[in-house]
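Shape is hard to put into words, and the shape of a protein is harder than most. The fold becomes a row of whole numbers, each drawn from a learned catalogue of backbone shapes. The outcome of that step, for a single protein, is printed below.
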Amino acid sequence: MPRPMRWAARLLPLVLLVLWLAVGGGLGPYAGKLGEVATNDQAAFLPRSAESTRVIEAQRAFRQEETLPALVVWTSPGGGRIGPEAQSAATRALTTLAGRPGIVGTPSPALPSEDGEALRGVVQLRPDLGEELAPTLEAIGKAASAVPGTAVQLAGPAATQADLSDAFAGIDGLLLAVALVTVLLILLLVYRSVLLPLIIIVGAVLSLALACAVVYVLADHGVVRVDGQVQGILSILVIGAATDYALLLAARYREELARHEGDRFPAMRAALRRSAGPITASAATVALGLLALLFSDLTNNRALGPVGAIGIVCAVLSTLTFLPAVLVLLGRAAYWPAKPRPSDAEGGGTGIWRRVAALVDRAPRKVWAATLAGLLACAAFAPVLESKGVPLDEIFVNDAPSVAAQETLGRHFPGGAGNPAIVIAGAGELAEVTAAAESVEGVDSADAVTASGRPGAGAPLVVDGRVRIDVTLADAADSEAAAATVARLRSAVHAVPRADALVGGYTAQRYDTRETAERDRTLIVPVVLAVILTILVGLLRSLLMPLLLVATVALNFLATLGVSAVVFQHVFGFTGTDSSVPLYGFVFLVALGVDYNIFLMSRVREESLLHGVREGVLRGLTATGGVITSAGVVLAATFAALGVIPLAFLVQIAFIVAFGVLLDTLVVRSLLVPALVRDLGPVAWWPGELSRRATGPESTGPAREETGAGTP
């Protein structure tokens, strides 16, 4: 190499390091600012084409301005009846709230329950209060507490939104701190190196800073949507993926340092040449799998797709630029106090992985049969997993005030009180639609909304020839019975001629979300599998091997769902899961599970080209066992950090991904796949070149420098 070019090559790592440090310094604050463009308004994440979503649009015509209702509930601490004096005092307390900042119009009077043991009032709030929501609710509670001899609770959408904001408060710092500390401790324990874990953590943080900055700009311009869940998953996904890819490259660089006798630059060139293919292919499976969520009709699914893909791209960019620059500048010192050993030149591998490889070689059929039987037994429980939505009293893992208030409301008022089904219909057919609604089993009452904004308190409000009817359900709004009532209600009001009726509201939204989620799974699952299969075929130059890998990760997903069904019900006490959990779990587990199989099989292919198929399986398993297992443990621990957010949805996702990654890493990738490939022999690589090779060491491929590990 001419001297000027040599000096340019040696300056490149320093330039890359400076650029990434500038990225960290300039864009780092965006990780904390992402919450500024995030919304936790659940109405914004409903199915786009659902009937309940169209009702939300139609509702707006019946309000002079958008509101967020807060329900005030009074009960007697001793469980006795509440007298008329207390009812009058409660109404006066609500009246004093009129005109206060954040409160819209005049609150409703306090109405007694049929059993006389509770009162209920409604206060309409501005929906854009943001950080002022909590103080406004506090002011409402303080005013309502003036009623002597009663206890006050706040329920309804406003109280739920305030509890959601509390759950996501500090998500930027807390979640990131838990994830980073967890990753750092694992890396220090596994690699017994001081600098390498710190280098990997810094690279992950820089990639997250870049991803958050890009997402912030796009969200600020309305290109993507972000809520607390998407924000949390982005942090975890970037930290986990960047760490995984970094571990693969760092392990390969250590091998090449030993092979090149410490010469840093040729060692890094060889490491990049042999690692870039598997890393890029692995990232592509995750990014494209996430982008497949754009086919979803659920807006929160569509939001996660591009945001997650941006995070993966940033993780790969950091791994292939920042990490090589630092490793080249440090050389052997990056692994201090450990040192690259001569055995690392042949892939290293600890004694345990040599023993695992020996077991796979000695009894491959017994190994894959036993692991397959275990996975199938776990998968048998997958149909038990209920994904019809999380009840209101299980949305939060800990006790939330809005949940307790809703339970109180349900004990004294009709189950659907505070969350009525909303019917929009033609004004000329008001009587027929109301009669049809009241005739439905499970409906407690149906009243048209008046100009005062309250149902049944005067002449119906007519806007553009349409009226709004609030239908109170007899059962709790989040129950299966209420969902069945909504289905019957839709059939009844749709049958009224010329009414053009639409049914929405909280229960209808849950029902539509569940139906849409089921439709999304039938569409997106095949798309993700097809994308992954295409990438694997191009990477491994085989057809049977990609089919085998996709089948094993799909089985791992089903086994994980089976275990999750048992754990959620009998350990965590969940009666159901969010309707999006199976799809999220599938996308993450299948895409990330294929990652580890890509790391393994690309190395097996490289070794098979040199030493034959049988020896290639054993060498590939021995060489990658430690690094892939540690990467799996890191990723599982990173996703488990989502459990610090006290929301059932994220706790469920955290368990599914963490357990599934460990199961894939320790069983599927370590035992099932190598044993199947060892038993099948060259035919596993059909119809590629390796399928026509012998399994013994006498079949020697081209020199190592000519093959390139895992690259097509």
Q: What stands out?
A: The radius of gyration is 30 Å. Residues 695-712 have pLDDT under 50 and may be disordered.
